[in-house]
Amino acid sequence: MTAAAERPASRLAWLRVVPEVGWAAVSTAAFAVALLARLGGGPRWAVAGLYAVCYAAGGWEPGLARLQALRRRTLDVDVLMVVAALAAAAIGQVFDGALLIVIFATSGALEAVMTQRTAASVRALLDFAPQSAVRLGPAGDSSRSPQRSSSPVTSSWSAPASGSPATAASRAGRASSTRPR
Fold it and tell me: Among 20, 32, 102, 127, who pairs with 109 as Cys (CB 3.0-4.6 Å)?
C-alpha cells in the first residue's frame, strides 16, 4: 500500500483514520458549548454535563495510558497534565481543568496525525529504494545482486526508481556514496 492510498481523501477523514482526532474534536466541541452555556446563563446541570463530556472525551485515553505508566512506576508530563486537570475540577476550577484537557487532547491528536503522516511518507520513500545493485569486484568485474546482500567491502552501482544512478562504497564499516549530476 502506498502513502497516497493511506492518506485520507478529505480533511475530515482524519476523524475516522486517527481516533485521537475524533476524541479531541468531541472534547473541544463540548468545551465550546459549555463555555457558551455558562456565559449565556444556561442551567448549571447542563454546563456541568458538558464539562463532564469534555473531560471524558479528551481525557479517557491519555488517562488510561497514564495509569498503565504509573503501574510501571514511571512519571511523565502526561501524568501531571491529567492530575492537574482533575485537581482543578476538584477545587472548583472546572473551566480551567477542561481547558487543560482540550489543549492536552488537541496536542495529542496533532501528534498522532503527524506521526501517521510521517510513517506514510517514510513508507513512500522506501518505494524508491532500488531492489538490486551491480556489485563491482576488485578486478573491475560486475554482477547484479539484491541490494541487501552487499558484503562488508563492496562497491556497488544502483539506479533508483528515478533512473538516476548512484555509486556507494563500504569498507570496514564506513560507507560513502556519490550520485552523478
Answer: 20
